[in-house]
Amino acid sequence: MARLLEVKDLKVQFKTREGPVHAVDGVTFHLDAGETLGIVGESGSGKSVTSLSILRLLPMPPAQLVNGTIIYQDKDLADLPESEMRAVRGREIAMIFQDPMTSLNPVLNIESQLIEPLQLHLNMSKNEARQRAIELLEAVGIPDAPRRLRAYPHQFSGGMRQRVMIAIAIAANPKLLIADEPTTALDVTVQAQILELIARLRRDLGTAVILITHDLGVVAGVTDRIIVMYAGKIAEEASTDELFANPRHPYTLGLLASIPHLDEAVTEDLQTIPGSPPDQLHPIAGCPFQPRCPFVLEKCKTYPPYMAVGPNHRAACWVDVTDPAEQERASKRGFIPFRQIRHGFAGESSPAGMSNA
Amino acid sequence: MRRYLIRRVVQAVFMLFVMSIVFFTLLHLIPGGPDAVIGANNPHITPIQRAAIRHRFGLDQPVPIQYLSWLGNALHGDFGISFSNSLPVAQELAARIPATLELFLTALGFALIMAILLGVTAAVKQYSITDYLITVLSYIGISMPVFWFALLLQELFGVQLGLLPVFGRTAADTTSFTNLEIFEDYVVHLILPAIVLSLLFIATWSRFLRSSMLEVIKQDYIRTARMKGLGARQVFFRHALRNALIPLVTVVAISFGGIAGGAIITETIFAWPGLGRLFLVAVNFPDYPTLLAYLLFGAASVIFFNLVADILYGVIDPRIRYS
Amino acid sequence: MATVQSDQLLTQFQPNEITPELARKRRSQFRIIFDRFTRNKVAVAGFVVLAVLLVAAVFAPIITGQTSTYDPPNDPNLSIALSGPIPGHPLGTDDLGRDELARMLFGGRVSLAVGILTALLTILIAVTVGSLAGYYGGWVDMVMMRVTDAFLSVPLLVVLFVLARTFSDGSVPSIVILIAAFEWPSVARVVRGEFLGLKEREFLLAARTLGANDLRLMVRHILPNAAGPIIVAATLVVGDAIITESVLSFFSFGVRPPTSSWGSMLNNSRDFISSDPLLLYLPGIAILITVLCFNLMGDGLRDALDPYMTER
User: Fold this and answer.
1) Closest Cβ–Cβ partner in B220, B238, B239 for A102
2) Is the pLDDT reported for residue C118 higher than 90?
3) Are the beta carbons of C284 and B152 separated by less than 8 Å?
4) Count of CA atoms in the C-beta half-sphere (13 A) of A214
5) A228: CB partners within 8 A, 6+ apart
6) Pairwise CA distance, residues A78 & B49, whole Å
7) Helix C20-39 vs helix C278-305: crossing angle, to nearest 10
8) What is the DSSP secondary structure assignment for residue A179, as one 8-state letter?
9) How far is CA C62 from the centre of its chain?
């Protein structure tokens, strides 16, 4: 597959009175055409900032792109003039945001918001654009599209608004769709529908997708590959199956343990990762996960190299968490060896071959 | 919406009714009230003449009775006879409204255009020299006594430069003027008073719009608009300005309510034959029937335009539906 | 990011029971506000200018005695009327030959006194009404807010002119009462809002269970927490009142001769604009600068007190 996007050593900081906040701190990853990549991490891990920097949508100041390249096809988006960047936004790369309640302009009707990218990027006439807009609304599953075109955002439910937002994003047939926590603000039942819609559109349109979420359960059935981020850095990267089958970073272990399962007895406690998210204003030396990590060692004071630990699998950790001796050591610090995951997650993918227990 | 409207109108009418009582009582009980005015300018008046005048204006009745008869007449549009020139007060007021409206509408229209221009510019170029300059100017506009500004303009453009007329609404004699000249004459007479009257509005509205724009620009839907690849102009004017203008519309509507008090200073200094001048003459006389009518007119316009502002807000913002 | 925000939140939500630790925290909170204010150079400049003006007004008799041939400002001397700047009269004289510098200083006394006294009286009324309405709620709130609405529906200048013509004797106190009578409603709303927000907070519940009565709760516990917005409002009222007084005096409804304020000096100067424009410029500039400084200081204070203010 052709390489679509290559992000290298991306560093983004926020200037504050107390000093710079290292929101994204040396992130490197790539994406092929048509591929679906999941970026997972808790809030503040830098996943949203990473995605917003690709389209340069962060407010600058206070945000500042300190370092790195963002090669999209053959252009470096990190240093493209704003006028050329506008031709990329919406046309080449489009984005769906977290909160559909606030992402649509309240004083413009759906039609005017939906035909903008069509007129802008595809040079459609107003009538052509209106026709296409109806098709788009139907494609994202909004019934009675011709009439709903005239409606205002507040007349839609949250799930419906997110569908409209998706229609806007795919309007100009972008090659890459970034979905930044597209389901977080929605009801559980609606979440699944939206994810399914994204997956279907990806299949039908052949669009590459970056799906950003704090919930590993969300990405399980949808993505080809997953990046786990912590404190502005990539902790682990692997194909989806490999990551679930063979997680190698203690933070990933924690994330996996905190996914609720429908088939588990309700009496079992859901595990959480103890401690609080890192302070990126005053980053500690070495691995940022140290204070919360049951596997922590003295040498964690030096940041671990980003090592290949398997085929297409890399992790930034000194410890081999699959080693029973290490697990024994960690269990004294409260580590509960995580349960095997036998029945898969939200989607159809069913990771197999669990080795530890 | 309808129920909300009815409730607001009933409230407004009630408020006005209460105010009429307060104003009436105030004006009739204060030392130097209507009674004291009779004959004040004429020392040779006899007690019999005095009693006749008191009777003619109904001042020999108890105050509540006076109020009720005043109210009965007022409800029919009769606000009594002016003390100063014995003409019907309602007629006098009505005759002055066009001149004041002309000045007020011109000033507010000009102010709105300037405020949008300055406010948007300041917001788009936040923290630039232009932004600071606009901020400084609006601070000065807010802090400047309007009458002093008027005197300065009069002195500069009228006296020193001789460019613009500084008094009145038209030239003294327009009989030989062509239609175009009459129009020109109106316009040149309007310029200075309109600028003076618009100063405070420009200063406050542009600051208001600036902060409203800055607030809107932070919203998620602006990010969505940028995500589509729209240029700065479209993002600002199509997506941001519309939202930022919604709160300003109510501020503008409320400003209309100040028509009774707003033009007093400007009209006096530029000898503009409007409501403000009528009022000032009435205060100095003091002409109580006119004052009472004027106070109520002022309160009514404030209350009415506050109501208009509320309703407009609901009409303009598709999100708001009163229940 | 997250930690920065939570720090800012902490500075806002601090309880009010005076333990030594909290007293220290509160001092540091004052310190933060003070630091933020002093970082705002424009607001500090406004403060400094005002301080100078105040000193000049207070020591007007001494200053005039030092810098010019001191005639009591109300003593006419027609032989030097409208002189323009001459030795002994650095700013010239007015139409009656009175020293303009002395008149500016003594006029400033009146203007500043009206401004500051009005703000104090306004706060007194506004805090009384606003705190009762906000604290007791219910029908007390209903009645008081309707009265406030009524005052806000009055066309300000119209009523002021009428009342000044009938009630006022042209003395400073009567003008202060008049202006304050129409300045308080908007401030009362601010106070009411603060009280509404604060009365449900935990520290109050704690104080009440400890047996504090209503008055004590309002004065000792809520009021100090609402002080910030009230001080800001007061600062802005001063500027407003100075302008209003100047308008009243300009239309001869304000202070009566021989007492003069900057506003009445402007009224007086109208007839002599062409012979001595200084008489027109000086009082106007004085009002402009004074009001400007109060506005800048008020906005600076508001920004310093706003925990969500973004840094420039």
Assistant:
1) B220
2) yes
3) yes
4) 11
5) A40, A41, A234, A235, A236, A237, A243, A249, A251, A252, A255
6) 93
7) 140
8) E
9) 25
Q: Do A279 and C1 touch (CB under 8 A)?
A: no
Question: In this predicted complex, what is the ipTM?
Answer: 0.86
Question: What is the SS3 assignment for chain B?
Answer: CHHHHHHHHHHHHHHHHHHHHHHHHHHHHCCCCHHHHCCCCCCCCCHHHHHHHHHHCCCCCCHHHHHHHHHHHHHCCCCCECCCCCCEHHHHHHHHHHHHHHHHHHHHHHHHHHHHHHHHHHHHCCCCHHHHHHHHHHHHHHHCCHHHHHHHHHHHHHHHCCCCCCCCCCCCCCCCCCHHHHHHHHHHHHHHHHHHHHHHHHHHHHHHHHHHHHHHHCCHHHHHHHHCCCCHHHHHHHHHHHHHHHHHHHHHHHHHCCHHHHCHHHHHHCCCCCHHHHHHHHHHCCCHHHHHHHHHHHHHHHHHHHHHHHHHHHHHCCCCCCC
Task: Judge whether A95 is closer than 8 Å to chain B, CB to CB.
Answer: yes
- Per mean pLDDT, which of A295-309, B85-99, B303-317, C30-44 is the most reliable? B85-99
Give the number of C-alpha atoms closer than 13 A to the C-alpha of residue A325, restricted to the C-beta side. 2
Q: Which residues contact C170 (CB under 8 A, 6 or more apart)?
A: C254, C255, C256, C259
Best to test chain C binding among B10, B20, B143 (most C CBs inside 10 Å): B143
| C312 and chain A in contact, CB less than 8 A | no
Residue C6 pLDDT greater than 50, yes or no: no
Distance from CA of residue B134 to its chain's centroid? 25
CA–CA distance, A80 with A89 (Å, rounded to integer): 12
* B151:C266 CB<8 A: yes
Q: Which of A260, A199, A255 is nearest to A40 (CA)?
A: A255
Chain A contact present for C200, CB below 8 A: no
d(CA B186, CA B178): 12
Domains contained in chain B, CATH given: 2-74 (no CATH), 95-316 (1.10.3720.10)
Q: What length does chain C have?
A: 312
Determine contact, residues A134/A149, Cβ cutoff 8 Å. yes
* A165: contact with B, CB 8 A cutoff: yes
CATH architecture of C30-66+97-305: Orthogonal Bundle (1.10)
Q: Determine the length of chain B.
A: 323
Tell me the residues of chain A between 256 and 315 that have a Cβ less than 8 Å away from chain C. 277, 279-281
Each residue of A192-202: pLDDT tens digit? Answer: 788 888 888 88
Put the strands of the sheet holding A75-76 in their side by side order: A19-32, A3-16, A63-72, A75-76
| pLDDT tens digits, one per residue of C42-68 | 888 888 999 999 988 888 777 766 554
The H or E element that residue A213 is part of is strand A208-213
Q: Do A44 and C1 touch (CB under 8 A)?
A: yes
The answer to whether the peptide bond before residue C224 is cis (omega within 30 degrees of 0) is no
Q: How long is chain A?
A: 357
What is the β-pairing status of strands A93-96 and A176-180?
A: parallel
Spatial separation of the C-alpha atoms in residues A267 and A69, rounded to whole Å: 49
CA distance C261 to chain A (A): 45
Using the Cβ of A17 and the Cβ atoms of chain C, whether some distance falls under 8 Å is answered with yes
Q: Say how many C-beta atoms besides its own lie within 10 A of residue A303's C-beta.
A: 14
Beta carbons within 8 Å of A10's beta carbon, 6+ residues apart = A24, A26, A27, A28, A50, A53, A65, A67, A68, A69, A70, A78
**Closest CA–CA distance from residue C67 to any residue of chain A (Å):** 47
Which residue has tokens 């792109």?
A65
pTM of the model: 0.81
Contact C98, C157 (CB under 8 A): no
Q: What is the DSSP letter of A89?
A: B
**Each residue of A58-71: pLDDT tens digit?**
877 787 887 888 88
Q: Please judge whether B227 and A86 are an interchain contact, meaning their C-beta atoms are less than 8 angstroms apart.
A: no
